[in-house]
Amino acid sequence: MSQTPPSVTREQLKRYRDVIAMWMARFDTQSIADHTGLPEHLVVRWTANFQDLKREVAA
């Protein structure tokens, strides 16, 4: 049985905290992607996920 490689590498995941901190400091996703070297679609996905988590905690 073959396994599909993860869509997010361990090295990329280590940047999650930086992405969220920059987003909370009002950087746009393109600037975050440029600064961190991550693909913008990943930055967008992470920030959207973080927003969802914040809403769930607030509810």
Q: Number of helical segments?
A: 4
Low-confidence stretches: none
| Helix fraction by DSSP (H/I, runs of at least 4) | 55-70%
The main pleated sheet reads as: none
Strand content: under 5%
Distance between the termini: 42 Å
Shape: globular
Mean pLDDT, as a whole number? Answer: 92
- What Rg, in angstroms, do the CA atoms define? 13 Å
In short, what is this structure?
This protein is mainly α.
Q: Any chance you could write out the topology, listing elements then pairs?
A:
Blueprint: H1 10-13, H2 16-24, H3 29-36, H4 40-58
Walk me through this protein's architecture.
- Helix content is 68%, strand content 0%.
- Helix 2 packs antiparallel against helix 3, helix 2 packs across helix 4 and helix 3 packs across helix 4.
- The protein has 59 residues and is mainly α.
Characteristics:
59 residues, mainly alpha, 4 helices
